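note to self: dont lose this again. the chain is below, predicted strucutre after it. 75 aa total, dont forget to put it in the shared folder this time
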Amino acid sequence: MKDLVEVIAKALVDNPDEVVVTEKENGKTLTLELHVAPSDMGKVIGKQGRIAKAIRTVVKAAATEDNRKVDVDII
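---
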């Protein structure tokens, strides 16, 4: 999951070297924290949060194979 979020985020931003994804696990819930450069924040979130919602949808669809709940936080 971490690699999936990282690949998607690096494709969207101007500074792909500053993309960092960290994992935090709480039981069956996995939280992925996406850190990007402040100048790239708008590109990852998108207008009215559409890109962020799309990223979360793709990750949740991929997580159904593992029967896990995955949350993506953009920080």
